[in-house]
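Hi, here's the filled form for the chain we discussed.

Project: internal
Contact: R.S.
Residues: 555
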Amino acid sequence: MSDKPAFRVPVGTAANPVLDHETFERLVALGVAEDVEQGTHLFSVGDSNPDMFVVESGRVNIIREATVSSPARVMAQWQAGEFLGELAMLTGQSSLLTALVVESGRVCRITNATFKQLMSSDGSLSALLLATFRARRALLMAAADKTTEILGFEGSAQAMALRTYASRMELPHRWRDVSTEAGRASLEASGKSVSDLPVVVTRGGVLTNATPRLLSEAVGLSYRSTTGDHFDLVVVGAGPAGLAAGIYGASEGLSTLLLDAIAPGGQAAASSRIENYLGFPSGVSGAEITELGIVQALKFGVRLSAPSEVADLVSHSDHTEITMADGESITTRAIIVATGARYRRLPLDRWNDFEGGSIFFAATELEARTCAGRPVAVVGGANSAGQAAIYLADLGCSVSLIVRGPSIGSKMSSYLADRVTAHPRIRVHSASDVTALHGDSHLASITVTSSATGESTDVEAVALFCFVGAVPGTSWLSGIQLDASGFLLTDVDLPVHGDDAAWAALGRRPLAFETSIPRVFAAGDVRHGSMKRIAAAVGEGASAVASVHRALAPG
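And the returned structure, exactly as it came back:
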Protein backbone atom coordinates (compact mmCIF):
# COMPACT_ATOMS: atom_id res chain seq x y z
CA MET A 1 0.00 0.00 0.00
CA SER A 2 1.41 3.40 -0.99
CA ASP A 3 1.83 6.06 1.69
CA LYS A 4 0.41 8.63 -0.72
CA PRO A 5 -3.00 9.62 0.71
CA ALA A 6 -6.13 8.96 -1.31
CA PHE A 7 -7.55 12.17 0.10
CA ARG A 8 -5.85 15.15 1.74
CA VAL A 9 -8.39 17.00 3.90
CA PRO A 10 -8.17 20.64 2.78
CA VAL A 11 -6.67 22.95 5.39
CA GLY A 12 -9.15 25.48 6.72
CA THR A 13 -12.22 23.30 6.31
CA ALA A 14 -14.42 22.10 9.19
CA ALA A 15 -12.63 18.73 9.20
CA ASN A 16 -9.15 20.32 9.28
CA PRO A 17 -9.31 23.75 10.92
CA VAL A 18 -6.34 26.07 11.04
CA LEU A 19 -5.04 26.28 14.62
CA ASP A 20 -3.70 29.64 15.69
CA HIS A 21 -0.56 29.66 17.85
CA GLU A 22 -2.46 30.09 21.13
CA THR A 23 -4.88 27.21 20.44
CA PHE A 24 -2.05 24.93 19.32
CA GLU A 25 -0.09 25.65 22.50
CA ARG A 26 -3.17 25.06 24.68
CA LEU A 27 -3.65 21.64 23.10
CA VAL A 28 0.03 20.71 23.40
CA ALA A 29 0.04 21.73 27.07
CA LEU A 30 -2.57 19.06 27.78
CA GLY A 31 -0.36 16.17 26.65
CA VAL A 32 3.10 14.67 26.64
CA ALA A 33 5.53 15.02 23.71
CA GLU A 34 6.78 11.82 22.07
CA ASP A 35 9.36 11.30 19.33
CA VAL A 36 7.94 8.79 16.85
CA GLU A 37 9.66 6.80 14.13
CA GLN A 38 8.36 5.89 10.70
CA GLY A 39 6.24 2.74 10.98
CA THR A 40 4.93 3.52 14.48
CA HIS A 41 1.21 2.90 15.05
CA LEU A 42 -0.30 5.67 17.19
CA PHE A 43 -3.52 3.68 17.37
CA SER A 44 -4.92 0.71 15.47
CA VAL A 45 -8.35 -0.33 14.30
CA GLY A 46 -10.23 -1.96 17.18
CA ASP A 47 -8.38 -0.08 19.94
CA SER A 48 -10.61 0.98 22.84
CA ASN A 49 -10.59 4.59 24.05
CA PRO A 50 -7.86 5.83 21.66
CA ASP A 51 -5.77 8.83 22.69
CA MET A 52 -5.71 12.12 20.81
CA PHE A 53 -2.53 13.26 19.04
CA VAL A 54 -1.30 16.67 17.97
CA VAL A 55 1.33 16.53 15.21
CA GLU A 56 4.31 18.80 15.91
CA SER A 57 6.43 17.46 13.04
CA GLY A 58 6.35 14.51 10.62
CA ARG A 59 3.39 12.94 8.82
CA VAL A 60 0.71 10.45 9.91
CA ASN A 61 -1.55 8.45 7.59
CA ILE A 62 -5.08 7.44 8.60
CA ILE A 63 -5.79 4.00 7.15
CA ARG A 64 -8.95 2.04 6.63
CA GLU A 65 -7.70 -1.51 7.14
CA ALA A 66 -8.44 -4.26 4.62
CA THR A 67 -11.56 -6.37 4.91
CA VAL A 68 -12.28 -9.66 3.17
CA SER A 69 -13.95 -7.73 0.34
CA SER A 70 -11.72 -4.65 -0.11
CA PRO A 71 -8.05 -3.73 0.28
CA ALA A 72 -6.57 -1.31 2.81
CA ARG A 73 -6.69 2.34 1.85
CA VAL A 74 -5.20 5.59 3.10
CA MET A 75 -8.15 7.84 3.97
CA ALA A 76 -6.29 11.00 5.04
CA GLN A 77 -2.93 12.36 6.10
CA TRP A 78 -2.13 14.72 8.97
CA GLN A 79 0.94 16.95 9.15
CA ALA A 80 2.62 19.45 11.48
CA GLY A 81 0.13 21.81 13.13
CA GLU A 82 -2.80 19.39 12.76
CA PHE A 83 -4.41 16.90 15.13
CA LEU A 84 -5.79 13.37 14.95
CA GLY A 85 -9.12 12.11 16.25
CA GLU A 86 -12.82 11.73 15.47
CA LEU A 87 -16.12 10.93 17.21
CA ALA A 88 -15.02 7.45 18.32
CA MET A 89 -12.97 9.19 21.01
CA LEU A 90 -16.22 10.41 22.57
CA THR A 91 -18.53 7.46 21.97
CA GLY A 92 -16.29 4.83 23.56
CA GLN A 93 -16.50 2.99 20.26
CA SER A 94 -13.45 1.00 19.21
CA SER A 95 -11.27 2.87 16.74
CA LEU A 96 -12.54 2.55 13.17
CA LEU A 97 -9.17 3.37 11.65
CA THR A 98 -5.39 2.99 12.07
CA ALA A 99 -2.92 5.87 12.48
CA LEU A 100 0.51 5.07 11.02
CA VAL A 101 3.55 7.36 11.17
CA VAL A 102 4.96 7.62 7.61
CA GLU A 103 7.53 10.33 8.32
CA SER A 104 9.40 10.40 11.64
CA GLY A 105 8.75 13.39 13.85
CA ARG A 106 7.19 14.44 17.14
CA VAL A 107 3.62 14.19 18.39
CA CYS A 108 1.89 15.26 21.57
CA ARG A 109 -0.22 12.51 23.15
CA ILE A 110 -3.34 13.67 24.99
CA THR A 111 -4.80 10.74 26.93
CA ASN A 112 -8.41 9.79 26.33
CA ALA A 113 -9.25 10.64 29.96
CA THR A 114 -7.72 14.13 29.63
CA PHE A 115 -9.52 14.63 26.32
CA LYS A 116 -12.90 13.76 27.85
CA GLN A 117 -12.25 16.07 30.79
CA LEU A 118 -11.45 19.04 28.55
CA MET A 119 -14.61 18.36 26.51
CA SER A 120 -16.75 19.18 29.54
CA SER A 121 -14.53 21.85 31.11
CA ASP A 122 -13.14 23.96 28.26
CA GLY A 123 -15.90 25.57 26.22
CA SER A 124 -13.86 26.99 23.34
CA LEU A 125 -11.65 23.93 22.80
CA SER A 126 -14.56 21.52 23.10
CA ALA A 127 -16.55 23.52 20.52
CA LEU A 128 -13.60 23.36 18.10
CA LEU A 129 -12.99 19.64 18.60
CA LEU A 130 -16.68 18.71 18.42
CA ALA A 131 -17.17 20.58 15.15
CA THR A 132 -14.03 18.98 13.71
CA PHE A 133 -14.87 15.44 14.81
CA ARG A 134 -18.44 15.71 13.52
CA ALA A 135 -17.12 16.91 10.16
CA ARG A 136 -14.66 14.03 10.02
CA ARG A 137 -17.38 11.50 10.83
CA ALA A 138 -19.48 13.03 8.04
CA LEU A 139 -16.57 12.47 5.65
CA LEU A 140 -16.34 8.84 6.74
CA MET A 141 -20.10 8.39 6.29
CA ALA A 142 -19.88 9.84 2.77
CA ALA A 143 -16.68 8.05 1.71
CA ALA A 144 -16.90 5.33 -0.92
CA ASP A 145 -14.69 3.05 1.20
CA LYS A 146 -16.64 2.31 4.36
CA THR A 147 -15.31 0.58 7.48
CA THR A 148 -18.31 -1.76 7.64
CA GLU A 149 -20.39 -3.57 5.01
CA ILE A 150 -23.90 -4.94 5.60
CA LEU A 151 -25.05 -7.67 3.21
CA GLY A 152 -28.62 -8.89 2.88
CA PHE A 153 -31.77 -8.87 0.79
CA GLU A 154 -33.71 -5.64 0.26
CA GLY A 155 -36.93 -6.09 2.21
CA SER A 156 -35.34 -8.26 4.90
CA ALA A 157 -36.50 -7.21 8.38
CA GLN A 158 -33.26 -8.44 9.93
CA ALA A 159 -31.14 -6.46 7.47
CA MET A 160 -33.29 -3.36 8.01
CA ALA A 161 -32.76 -3.62 11.78
CA LEU A 162 -28.99 -3.59 11.21
CA ARG A 163 -29.17 -0.67 8.79
CA THR A 164 -31.37 1.33 11.17
CA TYR A 165 -28.98 0.71 14.06
CA ALA A 166 -25.91 1.64 11.99
CA SER A 167 -27.59 4.82 10.72
CA ARG A 168 -28.73 6.00 14.14
CA MET A 169 -25.32 5.30 15.66
CA GLU A 170 -23.63 7.00 12.68
CA LEU A 171 -21.49 3.96 11.89
CA PRO A 172 -19.87 4.42 8.47
CA HIS A 173 -21.28 1.50 6.52
CA ARG A 174 -22.20 0.37 3.03
CA TRP A 175 -25.36 -1.56 2.23
CA ARG A 176 -25.15 -4.37 -0.32
CA ASP A 177 -28.34 -5.94 -1.64
CA VAL A 178 -27.29 -9.50 -2.49
CA SER A 179 -29.90 -9.69 -5.22
CA THR A 180 -27.64 -7.34 -7.23
CA GLU A 181 -24.40 -8.27 -8.95
CA ALA A 182 -22.31 -6.12 -6.59
CA GLY A 183 -24.03 -7.63 -3.57
CA ARG A 184 -23.48 -11.20 -4.77
CA ALA A 185 -19.79 -10.39 -5.35
CA SER A 186 -19.44 -9.06 -1.80
CA LEU A 187 -21.16 -12.13 -0.37
CA GLU A 188 -18.86 -14.42 -2.36
CA ALA A 189 -15.80 -12.46 -1.21
CA SER A 190 -16.91 -12.87 2.41
CA GLY A 191 -16.91 -16.65 2.00
CA LYS A 192 -20.49 -16.88 3.26
CA SER A 193 -23.78 -18.01 1.75
CA VAL A 194 -27.41 -16.91 1.65
CA SER A 195 -28.14 -18.98 4.77
CA ASP A 196 -25.71 -16.76 6.70
CA LEU A 197 -27.56 -13.51 5.91
CA PRO A 198 -27.57 -10.85 7.06
CA VAL A 199 -23.78 -10.71 7.02
CA VAL A 200 -21.64 -7.87 8.40
CA VAL A 201 -18.06 -7.46 7.19
CA THR A 202 -15.96 -5.32 9.52
CA ARG A 203 -12.27 -4.95 10.39
CA GLY A 204 -11.37 -8.10 8.53
CA GLY A 205 -13.96 -10.12 10.48
CA VAL A 206 -17.31 -11.45 9.32
CA LEU A 207 -20.51 -11.68 11.39
CA THR A 208 -23.11 -14.18 10.20
CA ASN A 209 -26.85 -14.01 10.96
CA ALA A 210 -25.91 -10.63 12.36
CA THR A 211 -28.01 -8.60 14.78
CA PRO A 212 -27.60 -5.05 16.12
CA ARG A 213 -26.34 -6.57 19.35
CA LEU A 214 -23.59 -8.55 17.59
CA LEU A 215 -22.64 -5.47 15.56
CA SER A 216 -22.47 -3.30 18.68
CA GLU A 217 -20.14 -5.81 20.34
CA ALA A 218 -17.94 -5.93 17.23
CA VAL A 219 -17.47 -2.15 17.12
CA GLY A 220 -17.27 -1.61 20.88
CA LEU A 221 -20.61 0.13 21.47
CA SER A 222 -22.16 -2.44 23.82
CA TYR A 223 -22.06 -1.83 27.56
CA ARG A 224 -18.75 -2.95 29.02
CA SER A 225 -18.47 -2.87 32.79
CA THR A 226 -15.23 -1.62 34.27
CA THR A 227 -13.81 -2.10 37.74
CA GLY A 228 -15.53 0.15 40.24
CA ASP A 229 -18.43 1.13 37.98
CA HIS A 230 -20.97 2.96 40.12
CA PHE A 231 -23.32 5.55 38.72
CA ASP A 232 -25.24 8.40 40.29
CA LEU A 233 -27.85 8.17 37.55
CA VAL A 234 -28.85 5.57 34.98
CA VAL A 235 -31.29 6.71 32.31
CA VAL A 236 -33.18 3.89 30.60
CA GLY A 237 -34.31 4.96 27.14
CA ALA A 238 -32.51 7.38 24.82
CA GLY A 239 -35.34 9.24 23.11
CA PRO A 240 -35.68 13.03 23.58
CA ALA A 241 -36.56 12.70 27.29
CA GLY A 242 -33.71 10.28 27.96
CA LEU A 243 -31.14 12.30 26.02
CA ALA A 244 -32.19 15.48 27.85
CA ALA A 245 -31.97 13.70 31.21
CA GLY A 246 -28.52 12.39 30.35
CA ILE A 247 -27.28 15.82 29.25
CA TYR A 248 -28.61 17.65 32.31
CA GLY A 249 -27.48 14.93 34.70
CA ALA A 250 -23.91 14.77 33.42
CA SER A 251 -23.56 18.53 32.96
CA GLU A 252 -24.60 18.99 36.60
CA GLY A 253 -21.98 16.61 37.93
CA LEU A 254 -23.80 13.27 38.08
CA SER A 255 -21.99 10.17 36.84
CA THR A 256 -24.50 9.19 34.15
CA LEU A 257 -25.13 6.09 32.05
CA LEU A 258 -27.65 6.16 29.20
CA LEU A 259 -29.06 2.85 27.92
CA ASP A 260 -31.40 2.06 25.05
CA ALA A 261 -32.75 -1.33 24.01
CA ILE A 262 -32.59 -0.48 20.29
CA ALA A 263 -30.77 2.75 19.40
CA PRO A 264 -30.99 6.40 20.44
CA GLY A 265 -33.81 8.56 19.12
CA GLY A 266 -37.02 6.83 20.17
CA GLN A 267 -40.14 7.75 18.21
CA ALA A 268 -38.61 11.14 17.42
CA ALA A 269 -36.04 9.47 15.18
CA ALA A 270 -38.94 8.21 13.06
CA SER A 271 -39.97 11.76 12.11
CA SER A 272 -38.75 13.01 8.74
CA ARG A 273 -39.38 16.71 9.46
CA ILE A 274 -40.69 18.57 12.50
CA GLU A 275 -41.61 22.20 11.76
CA ASN A 276 -43.02 23.42 15.09
CA TYR A 277 -39.97 22.63 17.25
CA LEU A 278 -38.55 25.74 18.94
CA GLY A 279 -35.44 27.17 17.30
CA PHE A 280 -35.79 25.47 13.90
CA PRO A 281 -37.95 27.75 11.72
CA SER A 282 -37.16 25.72 8.60
CA GLY A 283 -37.90 22.45 10.35
CA VAL A 284 -35.64 19.70 11.65
CA SER A 285 -35.68 15.94 11.26
CA GLY A 286 -35.85 13.57 14.18
CA ALA A 287 -32.53 12.12 13.04
CA GLU A 288 -30.88 15.55 13.31
CA ILE A 289 -32.26 16.13 16.81
CA THR A 290 -31.01 12.69 17.82
CA GLU A 291 -27.53 13.15 16.33
CA LEU A 292 -27.06 16.54 18.00
CA GLY A 293 -28.39 15.20 21.30
CA ILE A 294 -26.00 12.25 21.26
CA VAL A 295 -22.99 14.48 20.59
CA GLN A 296 -24.06 16.89 23.32
CA ALA A 297 -24.52 14.06 25.81
CA LEU A 298 -21.11 12.58 24.98
CA LYS A 299 -19.51 16.02 25.32
CA PHE A 300 -20.58 16.17 28.97
CA GLY A 301 -19.32 12.67 29.70
CA VAL A 302 -22.49 10.57 29.44
CA ARG A 303 -21.72 6.91 28.85
CA LEU A 304 -24.04 5.73 26.09
CA SER A 305 -24.73 2.11 25.24
CA ALA A 306 -27.11 0.60 22.68
CA PRO A 307 -28.59 -1.86 22.16
CA SER A 308 -28.62 -2.52 25.90
CA GLU A 309 -31.87 -3.97 27.18
CA VAL A 310 -32.78 -3.67 30.86
CA ALA A 311 -34.61 -6.70 32.26
CA ASP A 312 -35.32 -5.72 35.87
CA LEU A 313 -34.49 -3.40 38.73
CA VAL A 314 -34.40 -3.94 42.49
CA SER A 315 -34.49 -1.01 44.88
CA HIS A 316 -32.44 -1.01 48.09
CA SER A 317 -32.26 1.56 50.86
CA ASP A 318 -29.32 3.46 49.35
CA HIS A 319 -29.07 2.25 45.77
CA THR A 320 -30.86 0.44 42.96
CA GLU A 321 -29.53 -2.61 41.17
CA ILE A 322 -30.30 -2.96 37.46
CA THR A 323 -30.18 -6.34 35.74
CA MET A 324 -29.53 -6.33 32.01
CA ALA A 325 -31.04 -8.86 29.61
CA ASP A 326 -27.60 -10.44 29.19
CA GLY A 327 -27.25 -10.89 32.97
CA GLU A 328 -24.93 -7.91 33.55
CA SER A 329 -25.60 -6.02 36.80
CA ILE A 330 -25.35 -2.24 37.21
CA THR A 331 -25.54 -0.27 40.47
CA THR A 332 -26.88 3.27 40.58
CA ARG A 333 -28.14 5.79 43.12
CA ALA A 334 -31.10 6.86 40.96
CA ILE A 335 -32.91 5.89 37.74
CA ILE A 336 -34.93 7.82 35.21
CA VAL A 337 -37.20 5.61 33.11
CA ALA A 338 -37.61 7.20 29.68
CA THR A 339 -38.51 4.15 27.62
CA GLY A 340 -41.28 5.99 25.79
CA ALA A 341 -44.06 4.27 23.88
CA ARG A 342 -44.06 2.40 20.60
CA TYR A 343 -46.69 2.44 17.88
CA ARG A 344 -49.19 -0.41 17.92
CA ARG A 345 -49.17 -3.27 15.47
CA LEU A 346 -52.46 -3.76 13.69
CA PRO A 347 -54.24 -7.09 14.35
CA LEU A 348 -54.05 -8.26 10.75
CA ASP A 349 -53.15 -11.56 9.14
CA ARG A 350 -49.62 -11.63 7.68
CA TRP A 351 -48.55 -8.50 9.58
CA ASN A 352 -45.48 -10.32 10.91
CA ASP A 353 -44.61 -11.50 7.39
CA PHE A 354 -44.28 -7.95 6.13
CA GLU A 355 -43.04 -6.07 9.21
CA GLY A 356 -39.53 -4.70 8.79
CA GLY A 357 -39.47 -5.29 5.05
CA SER A 358 -42.69 -3.65 3.81
CA ILE A 359 -44.27 -2.42 7.05
CA PHE A 360 -42.43 0.28 9.00
CA PHE A 361 -42.89 2.37 12.14
CA ALA A 362 -40.65 5.17 10.85
CA ALA A 363 -40.44 7.25 7.69
CA THR A 364 -36.83 8.29 7.28
CA GLU A 365 -34.52 8.31 4.30
CA LEU A 366 -33.62 4.68 5.04
CA GLU A 367 -37.19 3.34 4.79
CA ALA A 368 -38.05 5.67 1.93
CA ARG A 369 -35.34 4.13 -0.27
CA THR A 370 -37.42 0.96 -0.51
CA CYS A 371 -40.46 2.67 -2.02
CA ALA A 372 -39.54 6.07 -3.48
CA GLY A 373 -41.79 6.99 -6.38
CA ARG A 374 -44.23 4.12 -5.77
CA PRO A 375 -47.64 3.92 -4.05
CA VAL A 376 -47.58 3.62 -0.25
CA ALA A 377 -50.00 3.79 2.68
CA VAL A 378 -49.65 5.74 5.92
CA VAL A 379 -51.88 4.83 8.87
CA GLY A 380 -52.55 7.36 11.63
CA GLY A 381 -54.14 10.74 12.29
CA ALA A 382 -51.60 12.61 14.42
CA ASN A 383 -48.52 14.67 13.52
CA SER A 384 -46.17 11.74 12.93
CA ALA A 385 -48.49 10.33 10.27
CA GLY A 386 -48.92 13.72 8.62
CA GLN A 387 -45.16 14.36 8.54
CA ALA A 388 -44.57 10.92 7.04
CA ALA A 389 -47.27 11.41 4.38
CA ILE A 390 -45.80 14.72 3.21
CA TYR A 391 -42.23 13.40 3.24
CA LEU A 392 -43.12 10.38 1.15
CA ALA A 393 -45.30 12.37 -1.23
CA ASP A 394 -42.44 14.83 -1.79
CA LEU A 395 -40.31 11.83 -2.83
CA GLY A 396 -42.79 11.06 -5.59
CA CYS A 397 -44.89 8.46 -3.78
CA SER A 398 -48.62 8.30 -4.24
CA VAL A 399 -49.76 8.28 -0.59
CA SER A 400 -52.98 6.88 0.85
CA LEU A 401 -53.41 8.31 4.37
CA ILE A 402 -55.79 6.14 6.39
CA VAL A 403 -57.32 7.92 9.39
CA ARG A 404 -59.66 6.20 11.81
CA GLY A 405 -61.28 9.46 12.94
CA PRO A 406 -63.78 11.54 10.95
CA SER A 407 -61.12 14.06 9.89
CA ILE A 408 -57.38 14.68 10.16
CA GLY A 409 -57.94 17.96 11.99
CA SER A 410 -58.89 16.37 15.31
CA LYS A 411 -55.38 15.20 16.31
CA MET A 412 -53.05 16.78 13.75
CA SER A 413 -51.64 20.31 14.04
CA SER A 414 -53.64 22.60 11.78
CA TYR A 415 -50.65 23.75 9.70
CA LEU A 416 -49.82 20.12 8.96
CA ALA A 417 -53.42 19.12 8.22
CA ASP A 418 -53.67 21.99 5.72
CA ARG A 419 -50.51 20.82 3.92
CA VAL A 420 -51.71 17.21 3.81
CA THR A 421 -55.08 18.07 2.30
CA ALA A 422 -53.46 20.42 -0.24
CA HIS A 423 -50.82 17.97 -1.45
CA PRO A 424 -51.70 16.56 -4.90
CA ARG A 425 -50.14 13.15 -4.21
CA ILE A 426 -51.91 12.49 -0.88
CA ARG A 427 -55.38 10.98 -0.69
CA VAL A 428 -57.00 10.97 2.76
CA HIS A 429 -59.29 8.06 3.72
CA SER A 430 -61.17 9.39 6.77
CA ALA A 431 -63.22 7.20 9.11
CA SER A 432 -61.45 4.15 7.71
CA ASP A 433 -59.35 1.17 8.79
CA VAL A 434 -56.90 -1.16 7.11
CA THR A 435 -58.58 -4.56 7.21
CA ALA A 436 -56.32 -6.79 5.07
CA LEU A 437 -52.79 -7.05 3.66
CA HIS A 438 -51.96 -8.60 0.28
CA GLY A 439 -48.74 -9.68 -1.40
CA ASP A 440 -46.22 -12.50 -1.75
CA SER A 441 -42.82 -11.86 -0.15
CA HIS A 442 -43.46 -8.08 -0.29
CA LEU A 443 -46.59 -6.05 0.35
CA ALA A 444 -48.50 -5.25 -2.85
CA SER A 445 -51.82 -3.79 -1.68
CA ILE A 446 -54.10 -3.29 1.31
CA THR A 447 -57.84 -3.37 1.87
CA VAL A 448 -59.32 -0.17 3.32
CA THR A 449 -62.77 -0.35 4.89
CA SER A 450 -64.96 2.66 5.67
CA SER A 451 -66.41 2.56 9.19
CA ALA A 452 -69.24 4.80 8.03
CA THR A 453 -70.47 2.76 5.04
CA GLY A 454 -68.79 -0.62 5.50
CA GLU A 455 -67.55 -0.40 1.93
CA SER A 456 -64.14 -2.00 1.26
CA THR A 457 -61.60 -0.93 -1.38
CA ASP A 458 -58.29 -2.46 -2.40
CA VAL A 459 -55.54 0.16 -2.49
CA GLU A 460 -52.15 -0.39 -4.12
CA ALA A 461 -49.30 -0.01 -1.60
CA VAL A 462 -45.79 -1.48 -1.71
CA ALA A 463 -45.14 -0.24 1.84
CA LEU A 464 -47.22 0.61 4.88
CA PHE A 465 -46.11 3.15 7.50
CA CYS A 466 -47.90 2.71 10.82
CA PHE A 467 -48.25 5.56 13.34
CA VAL A 468 -51.20 4.57 15.52
CA GLY A 469 -51.70 4.05 19.24
CA ALA A 470 -49.11 4.00 21.98
CA VAL A 471 -47.81 0.99 23.91
CA PRO A 472 -45.72 2.16 26.89
CA GLY A 473 -42.30 0.60 27.41
CA THR A 474 -43.05 -0.70 30.90
CA SER A 475 -43.35 -4.48 30.44
CA TRP A 476 -39.90 -5.01 32.03
CA LEU A 477 -40.90 -3.28 35.28
CA SER A 478 -42.44 -5.06 38.26
CA GLY A 479 -43.66 -3.88 41.65
CA ILE A 480 -44.31 -0.37 40.35
CA GLN A 481 -47.63 1.45 40.00
CA LEU A 482 -49.04 1.91 36.50
CA ASP A 483 -52.27 3.35 35.15
CA ALA A 484 -54.86 1.19 33.39
CA SER A 485 -53.00 1.58 30.06
CA GLY A 486 -49.61 0.65 31.47
CA PHE A 487 -48.10 4.14 31.78
CA LEU A 488 -46.08 5.00 34.88
CA LEU A 489 -47.81 6.93 37.65
CA THR A 490 -45.73 9.66 39.28
CA ASP A 491 -45.88 12.22 42.12
CA VAL A 492 -49.40 13.65 42.57
CA ASP A 493 -51.03 10.86 40.53
CA LEU A 494 -49.84 8.25 43.03
CA PRO A 495 -52.04 7.11 45.93
CA VAL A 496 -51.24 8.46 49.41
CA HIS A 497 -47.94 6.99 50.68
CA GLY A 498 -48.09 7.89 54.37
CA ASP A 499 -48.23 4.25 55.46
CA ASP A 500 -45.58 3.00 53.05
CA ALA A 501 -42.47 1.95 54.95
CA ALA A 502 -40.03 3.09 52.28
CA TRP A 503 -41.47 6.61 52.12
CA ALA A 504 -41.85 6.77 55.90
CA ALA A 505 -38.15 5.96 56.28
CA LEU A 506 -37.31 8.80 53.90
CA GLY A 507 -39.64 11.18 55.69
CA ARG A 508 -41.14 12.51 52.48
CA ARG A 509 -43.63 11.91 49.68
CA PRO A 510 -42.66 11.26 46.07
CA LEU A 511 -40.98 14.18 44.33
CA ALA A 512 -41.98 15.55 40.93
CA PHE A 513 -41.60 12.77 38.31
CA GLU A 514 -40.86 10.18 41.00
CA THR A 515 -42.65 6.83 40.71
CA SER A 516 -43.97 4.61 43.50
CA ILE A 517 -40.40 3.32 44.01
CA PRO A 518 -38.08 5.82 45.75
CA ARG A 519 -35.33 7.29 43.52
CA VAL A 520 -36.92 5.79 40.38
CA PHE A 521 -38.26 8.58 38.18
CA ALA A 522 -40.15 8.70 34.88
CA ALA A 523 -40.03 11.22 32.04
CA GLY A 524 -41.47 11.54 28.56
CA ASP A 525 -44.07 9.43 26.79
CA VAL A 526 -43.81 6.53 29.26
CA ARG A 527 -45.25 8.72 32.02
CA HIS A 528 -48.98 8.98 32.71
CA GLY A 529 -50.24 12.44 31.76
CA SER A 530 -47.32 13.42 29.53
CA MET A 531 -48.07 15.60 26.51
CA LYS A 532 -46.54 13.22 23.90
CA ARG A 533 -44.59 15.99 22.15
CA ILE A 534 -40.80 16.19 21.64
CA ALA A 535 -40.42 19.58 23.30
CA ALA A 536 -42.44 18.41 26.31
CA ALA A 537 -40.34 15.23 26.59
CA VAL A 538 -37.12 17.26 26.60
CA GLY A 539 -38.52 19.46 29.37
CA GLU A 540 -39.58 16.45 31.43
CA GLY A 541 -36.15 14.84 31.10
CA ALA A 542 -34.44 18.00 32.35
CA SER A 543 -36.98 18.52 35.14
CA ALA A 544 -36.67 14.94 36.36
CA VAL A 545 -32.94 15.53 36.91
CA ALA A 546 -33.80 18.41 39.28
CA SER A 547 -35.81 15.94 41.36
CA VAL A 548 -32.95 13.43 41.24
CA HIS A 549 -30.66 16.04 42.82
CA ARG A 550 -33.19 16.59 45.62
CA ALA A 551 -33.57 12.86 46.20
CA LEU A 552 -29.80 12.33 46.39
CA ALA A 553 -29.07 15.37 48.55
CA PRO A 554 -27.74 14.44 52.02
CA GLY A 555 -30.10 14.79 54.95
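Let me know if anything looks off before we file it.
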